[in-house]
Amino acid sequence: MGAVKTKRMPRAVREQQMLDAAVRTFGQRGYMAASMDEIAELAGVSKPLVYLYLNSKEDLFTACIRREAKALVEAVRAGVRRELPADRQLWEGLRAFFTHTAQNPEGWSVLHLQARTHGEPFASEVTAMREEIVAFVTQLIVVAAREAHRDPDLPEREVAGLAEALVGAAESLAAWANATPGVTARQAAATLMNFAWAGLGNLMESRPWQPPAAATGSATAQ
Amino acid sequence: MGAVKTKRMPRAVREQQMLDAAVRTFGQRGYMAASMDEIAELAGVSKPLVYLYLNSKEDLFTACIRREAKALVEAVRAGVRRELPADRQLWEGLRAFFTHTAQNPEGWSVLHLQARTHGEPFASEVTAMREEIVAFVTQLIVVAAREAHRDPDLPEREVAGLAEALVGAAESLAAWANATPGVTARQAAATLMNFAWAGLGNLMESRPWQPPAAATGSATAQ
């Protein structure tokens, strides 16, 4: 029955099935260990057909990264109402992010673990996605600073660093939440808001944590 | 002159030179692209000698991960005075962390990017190191909660999530700081303290960021 059905499917649908199988296999086994045989079998098609449609293991992996990155960015965008205050936008964005990574653990593994470390062109595909998310967070921090101050005094570099920290925290939490039974997307998002926004909130009010001026050179590593 | 000098070196010293060359090469080129020829040349020894001492590319890479992980954990430990309050310990730990990653960018690249995604046994080497650092941060958060409350009410899972978020933020910031000219270790540490501790501080005082109860189901991704 599978064979007949498969033959009548349009190319685009079949390609998506191959990508589904590939994301699952790459996400579970890693890029190196994943075999084209396994991917073809999981997709219910022959290996030559996978090569015919997606060309090579490299191109198939690139197609997976591109599809998963696009889906993640679209999920975050769709989750955020841009007319809300900055902290609410961040909350909605985080919830959408953690919901999506929880529902697509293999896709997240492809993006977070696999794609970043097998050289070009894979790494730059993910870098582009990450930069888009960092830009979104950066802009939220800038808006929040503007709302809090008449004369915003967060230097550009500080904002950039805060955005990097927040995105890194979200990446780490998503991997942890997926590996920890019973952690919901909402809990992960609330943890990060607790962690980040209360701190950013203080910062917006010009109440940063104060580094101890006297102790900088002593027992700390230079 | 190099040859004579090399011949008289004790094995341990020569091994360290090979590891220095290997960390540099793996960190800059990535594990797959790095060649044993290049590593041997950079170490100023013959390729057979590298194989004689370190056995294989896999074993050499494992030795690099182990050495760099140990050095990083020791640097953080050495940078922290355990008798200080929790926020000061975190500050000192972060400064030591960012100082070490800034001074050893290739070592950090090996740990953060290369080691995590080439399967076992590499990944578990880094996981062990990361777990040690997460345990240290977790314990600081628990101590801080105990200092802030007579009856600490941060659930264990929330503490675990916060520690994951903080470590993920630090990892992301270290990569960003190394890629951004002029960002010092102190600035990176201060950014993260601003981001994290002010937020954690609020949390300790039972002032978490409040998720909007009413808006949870509407425009957010389910």
TrEMBL record, chains A, B:
DNA-binding region: 35-54
Protein name as it appears in the record: AcrR family transcriptional regulator
Residue ranges annotated for the HTH tetR-type domain, each copy included: 12-72
Keyword tags: DNA-binding, Transcription, Transcription regulation
